Structures are given as structure tokens and as C-alpha cells.
User: Fold this.
Amino acid sequence: VRGWDLGKKVCVVEQRGGLGGTAVWGGALGGKVIHQFGKGLRFARPYLKDQTADTTWVWEQMKTRVREALIERATMLDRQLIALGQTKTFNRPKLKRAQRSGTIESWKGPAKFLSPHTVQVGEDMVIRAEHFLVCTGSKPRPLVKFPWDGKFIITPREIAVLESLPKSALVLGCGAVGCEVATLLASVGGSGANIHVLNSYAKPFQDDDEDVSDFVEFILAEDGVELHNNAKLEFAKVHEAKGMVECRVVKTLPQLGINTSDSDRPPLPRQVRKTFWVEKLILCNGRMPNTETLDLQ
Assistant:
């Protein structure tokens, strides 16, 4: 849109069916809708005891709201580009860099670079341009030890399309996305939710101020989320017949007692192992660029 403002000829290429990228279809917008839905549900529960006790009804209502928000936003983006593409002139006397409006076209399909100034879209379309702006977003970082299967081991993107609300989950990662996923599942699930968050550091948001970490811990505890600091996932196995994931967590605790040895070395920390059985293992361990199919080399 800014290129159109400056009188440029712009072409937008999108592989998905709708515009919006990760912000719309990758879970970002859906997560915000679920979060707000959960906040409203928390206050409404005392007055809607019979209905909110049925988690199936609650989850279906939530998914409907998410679908409506995604479609509305994607449609709005489509209409905006179509309207700008049909506009020939515009009245902006203060904008001296462009005396006439630009043009906008959009194409759907997978794209890859053929040269620094050439991109192939699909099988036949070739686009040549002076400049390309890569806005392909990111995707969840895969874990070889705990591979994603989309059913039991999932990423935040799949939450809004789950058939039912998971009553228990273990969230791997305590960053912004991990905390958001944990709180929204706890708020929608209510008192029956059993949500755990693994944090490999001594406190959440370790690089931020201490009051930020304390506030995050307070909010998670208030929502009924159990936070495990200094903890790592050692083992995970899907038991499809039971519909559960067996997760073994290793938590590092400070050594108790006084080191009375003559050595100057500090006492070794203790490691405690605990097994959790959850319906979903949610990977929130970071993201990576979504550029492997573009042939950028």
C-alpha cells in the first residue's frame, strides 16, 4: 500500500488462499480472539454455570468467533487492494514524490526466485521487478526429538482448529507466545483445566526487569497455570490409544544443606524428574524464517 502511495507498480504474491500471512492465518489474530473470549468467559461463568460447564459448547462458540474474525480481516485486506488497484488518480497535493497513483496486482501461488530481479509464481507466471520485499513471515521451529504430528504434539497455529478443548496441556516454552497459549487455554477451560508451562530459565522473561518476571508469574498463577522454572522436557511419547502424551520433565533444584567438603567447588544442583500425562504437548520454543522454498541462494 505504501508503494502505491509513492506511485509504484506493485504486485503482491501470496501462496495461501487469503491475504494476511501469519498475523491472520498463523495464529496471531486467532490467539488474540481466544484470549479476549476467555477473559469475557471468566467474568460470565458465575452467571452462566450450566452452559459454561459444557466445554464442548464453549469451544464451538470460541471457534466460531475465531473464524469470523479471520475471514473478516482477510476480506478487508482483499477489498483494500482491489479498491486501490482500480484507483487511477488521487488528490494529495502535499505528496510530491508521486504525481499519479501506482497500481496494485495480486497473484496466488507458490513463488521462488529465478534471479535477483525475477520471481516465478506457480508453473507459468514470471514477474520481473527492480526490488522485491520478502514478507513471508516465520514458522514454528521444529524439534527433532519431539516431532510435530498436528494431533497430539501441536503448535499454537493448530489450537483454534482443534475439535475439542484440551483439558490438560504442557506448553514447551515460556516466552510471549507460550504464556499467551497457557493463559487462553486456562481461561477458556476454567477450573477444570490442567495447564503446565516449562521454562528452562530460573524465571520467565529472564532478560527483562525482575518486576516483569514477577508479574508474569503472578498472572499465570492467578489463571491456574502451573509454571515450572529450570525445567526441561527429557522425554515425550504419544499414547494414541489413551489419547494422551506422556511427558517426563527434569527440573533442576538448588542443592540443600551446606557444603562441608574441603573443595572450593560449589555443591552440585539436584535434578528431580516428574512425569505428566497431558492431552496436548504444545511447542512454543521459538520460530524460524519461512523462506526455504524461495531459493534465495
Summary: DSSP finds seven helices and 15 strands in the chain.
